[in-house]
Structure formats: structure tokens, C-alpha cells
Amino acid sequence: MANATTAGKAAVKNGRPAIDLHVIGPIVALIVLIIIGALMNPNFLSYGNVTNVLARSAFIGIIAVGMTFVITAGGLDLSVGSMAAFIAGLMIIVMNALVPTLGTGWPTILAGMAAALAIGFAAGLFNGLLITQARIEAFIVTLGSMGIFRSLVTWLADGGTLSLNFSVREVYRPVYYDGIFGIAWPIIVFLAIAALGEIVMRHTAFGRHCAAIGSNEQVARYSAVHVDRARLAGYVLLGVLVGVATIMYVPRLGSASSSTGVLWELEAIAAVIIGGTVLKGGFGRVWGTVIGVLILNLIENILNLTDLVSPYLNGAIQGVIIILAVVLQRQKKATR
Amino acid sequence: MQPAPQTTARPSAAAGHAPVLALAKVSRSFGPVQVLFDVDFDLYPGEVHALIGENGAGKSTMMKILSGYLEPTSGEVTLDGAPVSFASSEDAEDRGVVLIHQEFNLADQLSVEQNIFLGREIKRGFLLDHKAMRATTNELLERLETKTPAWATVSKISVPEKQMVEIAKALSREARVLIMDEPTAVLTRNEAEILFRQIERLKAQGTAILYTSHKLDEVARIADRVTVLRDGRHVLTAPANELTEDAMAEAMVGRELSNLFPEKTKTSAAEAVLSVKDFSIPGIVENASFELRKGEILGFAGLVGSGRTELMEGLIGIRPATGEIRVNGKARQIRSVDDARKAGIAYLTEDRKERGLLLNQGMRANLTLLALKKFSRVLIDRDAEEKALDRSIREFDIRAPSREIRVANLSGGNQQKLLLAKTMLAEPEIVIIDEPTRGIDIGTKQQIYQFVRRLTDEGKSVIIISSEMAEVIGLATRVAVMRRGRIAGTLEGEDINEDAIVRLAMGLEGRKAEGNG
Questions:
Q1: Are A223 and B373 a contacting pair at CB < 8 A?
Q2: Is B515 in the same domain as B436?
Q3: How many C-beta atoms lie closer than 10 Å to residue B255's C-beta?
Q4: B125 & B83 share domain
Q5: What is the DSSP letter of B350?
Q6: Does some domain include residue B350?
Q7: Which of B137, B153, B174 represents a domain boundary (last residue)?
Q8: List of chain A residues whose C-beta atoms are within 8 Å of the C-beta of residue B426
Q9: A12: closest chain B residue by CA
Q10: How far is residue A63 CA from its own chain's centroid?
Q11: What's the rounded Cα separation, in Å, for the pair B273 and B328?
Q12: What is the pLDDT of residues A139-165, one digit of tens each?
């Protein structure tokens, strides 16, 4: 049937519209936002502002990359914001406790970073095991752990703020504020993780398995996919990435409190959905998530820079964008 | 009315004089693709009219046009002699034309009763009249001789029961025209018999019934007239008693069908590649023991629910089970499909849409899912995947309008071929195929039988589970018959016949009594 095959290839070229709104939609939205921003404020495209926006995007962005895998596999994690606060709090406590033995230099900070990754790993494992082994809905498990983590950090801080030792803070600060070749570290880490995430999603068995589980768990199971293992891996990966995001976040303020990372989970989920990943799973793309994160942060930035619309309406505009993104997804479905 | 064209035979004298529902020169296109070409069709009150054709012949489209789900691109639909344009399927139902889908349209979380009255609940004032609805439901279910209780949640009942609920729902709408899309595909023989009695009853009451099925023996038995579609064109309409099953098959395929089944292998003496001993699945399968010999096709017959599928699912580690499995003499622990794959065992599920294929994904992702390890070290080798797809398309004659098509849009036959290709990519030594040709047209069936036969030529060993007696008898060198979770007996060579299988499946007598029968 060589004929049928070649005919098939030709049909793809002719049959499909050259422009797929679903693919270019987020990109167009991003470009439009950049143009609007540039027109409204000459400082918008300045080095300082661009760095600021990108660096601030990095925390949510790093988390959202992990969230893309979890959502693609048909799951959800509502606990990431609280988890970030919890990790930040513990990380600060660990570092402060190590100052007498390891001093105020890099050994302490590296130990703190290791602790952050380990706690992230453990938190992801906690969520993942409850979901895959105890077979509780992801929504319920992570709603619960969201409350647990948030409450724990409030308790650790005794209702106030956990502050990092000032000398350690001085050494740690550059991790957020410096960079190389004029690119801040958070941006570098974010882009590296996004690039890796895109490769993992599209070109590895793990990414393929996530999409398979999200489209139809039964089919995946009958196709020799270790469904529980892959889903667990997704939550653990997300937990570790929350740890990475926290490592980049702590040097920014040098403190953690009960209000750290509030609503991060919603921003991360929104970025994933705006980027074109299907909420109920089966299809995910990491580059779309990156664009989603940038869109959300640009809106906030533009509202702050211009005085056309009150910055207090930021949430409303983001909300509209999220709903629009889902409407576009639905239209794509209907036309096929 | 014009005098009927020569190919259109009149219905039996018992039927009414004017068609209740008819198509005149109806065409339908989807975008640039035309699927129906100037089709004429008529359906009389009190007749059973069978519509047959291969997958993709246009049967579904035609049924959807008749029942208001689709509009014709050109041509006319007439109801009671007057041109009609159904606004929607609800409109058609209100006028007494009801389509029973092959894929059920039931709300899973609602009860049988709630489903039957969905959208047309009986009310007293503002409140639902539960009593009246329960009474009507019970009466309908009784007429259908089903034991399903009215309060049962649909998600918890079996597939044949769901079919009965669909039929009950249609009956409750007092349908004048009942369009049934392969109703017996998921029914056992007994259940099909009940359905046929219902069809007879409805027919006697003057209901017009349009019926599609791939089972030609059924068509020959219950239809008054038969219409054959091929490639979107009307081929013939004739009284069923003037057509043999062979004639129907040939009209569908458009060529003469030589032997449907390939020649059997003769390998009874070969050593066992798989031996299963005292295999049990709690509550479903009890102490099943059997052997699969190298290069043979072992058939598994038995009623739906006799534990055939569950036994195989236990073997590949999807269900917790106890017992001994030896592959090539070596004991194996199989706890997951991956373990089974490593042991060289692959299972093709009977439910290709829910368990076999990712419908919303393309052919490539589906093809390589089971054998993905072959294609990936750290990264997946996409070129190798594309080549594998090329090879599979060629080897299994998968016909897709485009390479990038979502699998949901492939016909059932091509889905089955893709599933077969996917399984074979894992290079199993032992292939278990559950209902290899369910819902597949006769031309593709023949192809699939050839593929299965080719597997044994390549030295692989095959287990076939089928509810189609002819399939088991036609393919298998030995047949194991299951009854209530046990293997009731194994038949070999000359002993394989319908009577012997039924006896074992029904538990009438053991093999000894065969000589008397």
C-alpha cells in the first residue's frame, strides 16, 4: 500500500488549514501584549523591565513546567503554592540552624538547597502515593495537602515571618539578582528547565506515557505502561521543581511567611491551560506553558506600567484570558 | 409514486402499502469527501429491512440521515409520503423515528429508570411521578425479558443489559420506525434471541424496523428485505429469502469471496509454549488449566460472562490471580502487562475503543505505545517510529485518509488492524486475540483471518477468544470451551463443531455424550 501512504502524506498538506489557531493562538496573544506594552510605555522593552518580568515569571514558570506533566497525565496539584511556602520556611530554618557549624557561606546555602530539593521530593511523593496507592482523587489529596503545608508554614513561623540569617542572605542574594552575560539566574534556570521539559514531553517514553495515561488510563495499562509509576513520577517531578523554584525565590526576599506563594497553584494551572495543554489530560506542551506564564506576567506588568486600567483589575483580566483559552480549546475540538 | 425500479422488490404482503420512511436520490458529503451517492431507500410499516455493507459503505451516514442526526446534502427524505426535514434527532423521535446507537447514549450515573425517561419524565404538577415511571419501566423490562432492576445504576450493568435498556428506551417512545445499528454485536446468543422475539412483536404491531448487522445468518433469519450498500452507493434491494448469505457477502464486497477461513495448521504434536495450571481469579475463574502448543491456534469458546476474557486478563497480569504459568517450560511470575510483554505474551483486547487504542491520538503514537522501549534509549527515535508505521500500514493494509488522522476517525476494521500491528510490534511469541473481528465487515474479517494464520506460519502461537461460533470453528486447531469460570472441555480436529461447543458451553453433557447427539 505504498500508494495509500504517499497519498496520505499529500492529503495532510492539503487537508489541514495552514494556520492552526490552537497552535499560534497563545503566540499571537503574547505578541499582541508585547506590542500593546511597547506602545503604552517606552520603558516596557527596556533591559530592566524585561529582566524584571522574566525573573518574576521564573518561579511560577518552573512550577508550571512540572504542572504540565501532571495535568497531561490527567492529574492536578493544588498544593504547589503552599508547598513552596513550606519548603521556603523549612529551608530557612535549616540554613539558620547550620550557621553555627557550617558558617554563613556557600556550604550552608548548598545544604539549604539540598534540603529544599529533598523536601520537594518528599512532598511530591506524599501527594503521589496518596493518589496512586490509596486511590484518592488528585483534587482531594492536593486540596488537603494544600491546607496541611500552608498550616505547617504558619505554625513554623508562629504566625509571623521566618527570616534568613542576614549574613547568609548577603551571600545568597546574587542567586536571584545576578546572572551571567546580563541574564539573571532565575531566567537561565527557568529556560533550561523549560527546554528540558519540552524534550522530555515530546521525545521520551515518560512524556509519551503521560499523554497516554491522560487520554485513556485503561489503554495505557493494557499497553504495558506502568500507570501508577508514571503518575507518581509526575507528582515527584513537580515537587522537586517546586523545590527548585523555592531555591530561586528565597534569596529574593530572604524570608517566608504564611502569605508566601499564595495563589501560585492557580497561576501555574492557568499558565498550563493558556498554553494549550488539555485540562483533562492527554495532550500537553511545555513551550505553550512558558508562553502562558509570560502572558500572565506581562498583563500584570502592563497594568503596573500604564494607568489605563487599575492594577487591581489584574486578576479579572487574567481570569478572562483563562476562560478565553479554554473556549478556544473547545472550538478546536468541535471543528475536528 | 413511480413504479418501483427493478432492483427494488416489494415487501411482503403483510406489510403496509406505502413506505413510512424513504430516501430519494440522497447524497451526503463531509467537506470534500462524498460518502453517499444518490441513494434510494424505502421502509414499510411492519417490515424488518436489513441494511448491510462493509465498514465505510455509508450505512451509519444513511441511518443518521433517516433519524435526523444529519441532513442530506442533496435528495429528499419522506415521512408518510411527505417530504420532511428533521430539525434534530429529538424532532425525529417526536415523530416516531428512533435510532438506537451502537455506542450507547446512556447517562452512566443515572438509574435504568431515569435513563428511560430522561428528558420526558412523567410529572405530577412540579414533582416527578416516580410511581408511574417505575411501573412503566418494569413493564418494559419485563417485555424484554431482562432481569435488570429499574433502580440499577447504568454504570454498574453489563453491556448487553445496556443494549436492552436502549431498546426499552426506544420502546417507551412508541417508535413507529426503529433504526438499530448492530444491536446484536454485544449480545450473547440467548440475548439476541430475546431481541429477535421483540423485533417480531414490534413488527406484528406495524413498526418499521431498519436493522444493520455484520452477522449475515442473522440477517437471513429475521429480515424481510435486504438492502446492500457499497462505497456509498445502493447496490441492490431484494427480499431476504431470495438471497443466500454468500450472495449478500458478494454484493457487499463487490467480488467473489473465496474461502473465508484460511487452511488450518496441523501442529497438534508440537510442544507446549504456554502451559497454565490451576489458574484462578477469585470469583470469576476457577482452576483453569490448559496448554498452548507451538504454532497452533487455540480457540476459546463459551458464553459471554463465562470468564474467557477475565482468564486472559489474569494471564497478562491485569487481574490478580493465582496459579502456575509456564512459558516454554519456564515458570513465570506475571504481575503486569509489562511482565507479560517480557515473557513474550501479548493480549489484544476485545474493547479496542476503551482499552486498545488512544482515540484522540494519531496512528504513530498508538502503534509504538506497547513496544515503546524498542524505540527509545533516552529519547524516542521518531524516524524509526515513522518507518515502523510505514511498515505496519503496508503489512496490515491499514487504510487511512491521512497519516496524521486521529485514530477515532478510522473505521473499525482499520482500528483493529492498527491494534494488531501495535501488538505485533512487541514481537510476542504468544498472541491472545479477544474477539478479533467484532463489529468488522466481512472483507476485513477475511484479511484479519489471513493475518492470524500468517502469525502461526511465522511460528507464533495464537489464542482466539470469540463469541462467533463460525470463527472459532473455522480458525482453531483446538477449542477450549468455558462455562461459569471453568474450562468445561477441549475439542480437537473432527470433534470441533457447533453442537459440541454449545453442549459444553451450556453444560448439557460432557464430551462422552457427543456420539449420541
A1: no
A2: yes
A3: 9
A4: no
A5: S
A6: no
A7: B174
A8: 224
A9: B402
A10: 3
A11: 5
A12: 999 999 999 999 999 999 988 899 998
Q: How many domains, chain B?
A: 4
Residues B218 and B325 reside in one and the same domain: no
Same domain (yes/no): B474, B509: yes
Q: Can you give the CATH number for the domain in which B326 is found?
A: 3.40.50.300
- B457-490: pLDDT as tens digits: 888 999 999 887 888 888 888 999 988 888 888 8
Q: Determine, for residues B361 and A199 on separate chains, whether the beta-carbon distance falls below 8 Å.
A: no
Q: Do B422 and A223 touch (CB under 8 A)?
A: yes
Q: Which domain holds residue B14?
A: 1-96+175-256
pLDDT > 90: what percent of chain B?
20
- Residue B349 falls inside a structural domain: no
Domain check: are B225 and B276 in the same one? Answer: no
User: Across the interface, do B358 and A219 touch by the CB < 8 Å criterion?
Assistant: yes
What residues form DSSP beta bridges with B234?
A: B229
Q: Cell 431470495 sits at which residue?
A: B242
* Chain A contacts in chain B segment 378-417 (CB below 8 A): 378-380, 382, 390, 393-394, 397-404, 406
Judge if B436 and B480 occupy the same domain.
yes
Nearest to A218 among B355, B398, B400 (CB): B355
The label of the residue with cell 506594552 reads A37
Question: Which residues in chain A have their CB less than 8 angstroms from residue B355's CB?
Answer: 216, 218-219, 221-222
- Mean pLDDT along residues A34-52: 87
The amino acid that residue B33 corresponds to is V
Complex ipTM > 0.95 = no
Instruction: State mean pLDDT over A295-303.
Output: 88
**Is there a domain that residue B102 lies in?**
no
Mean pLDDT score of chain B: 84
For residues B208 and B180, what is the distance between their CA atoms, to the nearest angstrom? 11
> Where does the pLDDT of residue B511 fall: very low under 50, low under 70, confident under 90, or very high at 90 and above?
very low
Task: Tell me the chain A residues in contact with residue B360 when contact means C-beta distances shorter than 8 Å.
Answer: 215, 282-283
Among candidate residues B240, B256, B272, the one where a domain is terminated = B256
Cα nearest neighbour of A223 on chain B: B370
Q: What is the mean pLDDT of residues B34-39?
A: 87
- Nearest chain B CA: its distance from A209 CA (Å): 8
B333 shares contact with chain A (CB less than 8 Å): no
Q: What is the pLDDT of residue A331?
A: 60
pLDDT at B248: 84
Distance from CA of A206 to the nearest CA of B (A): 10
Say whether both B92 and B189 belong to one domain.
Answer: yes
**Residue B354, domain member (yes or no):** no
Cα B97 to Cα A36, B22, B64, B107, B219: the distances in Å are 56, 12, 11, 21, 21
The CA distance from A217 to the nearest CA of chain B, in Å, is 8
pLDDT at B16 over 60: no
In angstroms, what separates the C-alpha of A97 from chain B's closest C-alpha?
Answer: 40
Which of A3, A6, A218, A219 to probe by mutation at the B interface, max B CB count within 10 Å? A219
* CA-based nearest residue to B407, from B419, B423, B396, B397: B419
Q: Mind giving me the DSSP string for B475-499?
A: H-SEEEEEETTEEEEEEEGGG--HH
